[in-house]
Every structure is written in structure tokens, then in C-alpha cells.
Amino acid sequence: MTLPPCAARLRANPAHWGLPVWKAALASLALAATLLCAAVGQNPASSEKSGQVVLRWLGTAGWEISDGKTVILIDPYISRIFGPQPPGRTPYERAAGDTRPLYGWDDAAVPDGAAIDAHVPRADFVLVTHTHYDHVLDVPHIALKTHAVVLGTESTENVLRAYRVPEEQLITVRGGEDYEFGTFSVKVIPSLHSPLDHKHYFSSEKASEGMKAPLTLRQMHPEGGTLAYLIRFHGHQILVFGGMNYIEREIEGLQPDVVLVGAAGSRKENYDYSGRLMRAVHFPALVLPTHWDNFTAPYGASQQSSIEALQSFIEEIKAASPKTKVITPKYFEAIPLSAAAQ
Ligand SMILES: [Zn+2]
Ligand SMILES: [Zn+2]
């Protein structure tokens, strides 16, 4: 990660930072340095517009957002286990050659370390929207490997504690926080989970304290409340959702240029989902649909039916916000953002 320019002078030689919690320490230093910058009348680096921000979709609700120096992950889920599906989704039929084990709710979930290592070489921050296995299963492995700082609900952090991720890496949030990290800032936004099962999905449960790894899928699937995030990074404002719902009053007045919008079929359970969203956030320049693929299928499997179902979402966005560009992401393909508006 990079410190603000006025703070860079304060940074010790990183070669001496050999501790496993060095990134958390750097985050703390960046925060302190930013406060110092503010005190001498300079803007924090998160308001600078100098870097090229690139997004990559990891599948499901997973994203990498990076300027080549600081790597921010959203709900990274690379393992794509053959596990239980959300209600109402078309079951994945195992293709020839797919030898993945079939997991039930009471099986301990094993992340695919080789796949994670191949696609997530490093990370500085991980932002988790909620504690469901398709959002959180890989996060302990990634946190332990990269020493990234993880923002999430108390429920999410309890899953990480079960895997002995150090407390220094855990930043527990509940929605309403607006945190400065030096190269970027994050507004944490209270949100809602997708109205699965024709509006019958509801959970007020959270992952409990004191659990011991390995956790079963059931133990890492209590939701624990749902968050959205507004990331300010090199002049861009990237609004991130991890599913198919939002609280309108919590996003009203935001003016992101990029929105990652949950686009699977359960969005249709909401009244005027795309229209209300586009109006609330002032018709953003770019929408990237997220969480629309069948995440129980491996990366190489056809997503044709999901791509066909996605077309109605694209039409909704176009109808609500004709000037908004919609890009259908492909797994791991770089999506460079155009220069931030001055
Ligand atoms: Zn979920
Ligand atoms: Zn999900």
C-alpha cells in the first residue's frame, strides 16, 4: 500500500518491516499520517486522481480493485465448491470431468488453496458484505496468506477468528463508519440481503464467538447482517453491493461513477430495483453486474443460461439510466476505469 505524499516521508524503510502484521501496522500508520496531513492543510491521498484503477471480477460477488500498489478485494470466492445453492437457483448439473467433492451444509468446507494462490497473489484489504459461504469461505485463507486487513461484520470477523486470523487484521464494522486508509477511503453502508426464496429469506443470526476451525458450511452461513461499501480511490467513487438489495435512504445522494450491482434473478422480488437504484445514486457512468453467475459451477463451465438471464438486467439499467454504460464482466479480465472526472 502507498501512503499519502506528505506522509511518505514518515514511512520507515519497509525492508525492516518483517512482522506478519506489517500491513495492519502500515494501515495504522497511514491513518495517523493522514490525520497529520489534514492537520497541515493537505487533502488525504484518497482524494487524489493520479492512479489508474483496474477492476477484475473473480466470479460470484468477488472483485479485485487495484491501482497496481494497493489491492482491495471484495467478497473474494475462488474455491467455487460444489455446495448448496440459494433457493430458486437452477441446480448445477455436474459436467463430465468435474471431480469436485459434493459438500452438504454439515460438511467442513475446504478452500481451494491452489486456485486462490493462482488468482489472488496478494491483497492489502478485504471488504466482506456478509457471512455466507459464497462470500466468506476463502477469506480466512487469503487473510492468513496475505496478511490483508479484513473489514466486515462481527459475524464475519468471528469466522476469521475461528481460523486464528490475528486481531490486528480485523476491523469490525456495522454500517455508518467512514474510514480513511491513506490511499483510499471506505464508507460502510447498512444494506439488505437478497430477498431469496420469493421474499421468505430472512436471518437475524450471526456467526458466534468461540468457534474452532474447520467450520462447516452451516457455521459460515448465518448472514450476520449485510453491508455495502463506497470506496473512494484515485478520484473514483465505487459503490459495491454483494447481493440483490439495498436500503434506498442509505444510498440516496451518493454520486458514485461506478456501481457493482447485484444482478441475479432475486432482484425482481424488489419494487423497481434498477430504477430506484439508478435514481438514488444519480445515474452513474458505469454499472458492472455482480453475483449473477452460477457459483456452484467451476470457472470453466458454461454460464450461458446466466448470461441469457442477465440481459433483462442490462435492459432495466439502460431504461432507467440511458447514459450508463453496462459491462458484462468476464472472469479475471481487467476492467480499467477511465480517468476520474475532474
Ligand atoms: Zn448471501
Ligand atoms: Zn451470495
Characterization of the model:
This protein is of the alpha/beta class and 342 residues long. It is built from ten helices and 14 strands. It has helices spanning 5-8, 22-39, 113-119, 133-136, 139-146, 154-162, 196-199, 248-251, 273-280, 304-320, and strands at 54-59, 62-66, 71-74, 125-127, 149-152, 170-172, 178-180, 184-191, 226-233, 236-240, 258-262, 286-290, 325-326, 334-336. It has a seven-stranded mixed beta sheet. Strands 7-8-9-10-11-12-13 form a seven-stranded mixed beta sheet. α3 links the parallel β3 (71-74) and β4 (125-127). The longest helix is centred in the N-terminal third of the chain and has 18 residues, at 22-39. The two termini are 24 Å apart. The model is unreliable at 1-24 and 26-41 (pLDDT under 50). One zinc ion binds at residues 130, 132, 193, 243.
Structure in a nutshell:
24% of the residues lie in helices and 19% in strands.
Keywords:
disordered N terminus, 19% strand, 10 helices, seven-stranded mixed β-sheet, alpha/beta, binds zinc ion, 342 residues
The unique ligands bound to this protein are: zinc ion
Structural class: alpha/beta
Mean pLDDT: 88
Seen as an oligomer or otherwise, the chain set is single chain
Q: Treating each run of at least 4 consecutive H or I residues as one helix, how many helices?
A: 10
- Helix percent reads 10-25%
Question: Order of helices and strands, N to C?
Answer: HHEEEHEHHEHEEEHEEHEHEHEE
Total strand segments: 14
Overall, the morphology is globular
Strand-residue proportion: 15-25%
Biggest sheet: strand arrangement: 6-5-4-3-2-1-14
Poorly predicted ranges (pLDDT <50, ≥5 residues)?
1-24, 26-41
Strand count, sense and barrel status of the largest sheet are: 7 strands, mixed
Radius of gyration: 19 Å
Distance between the termini: 24 Å
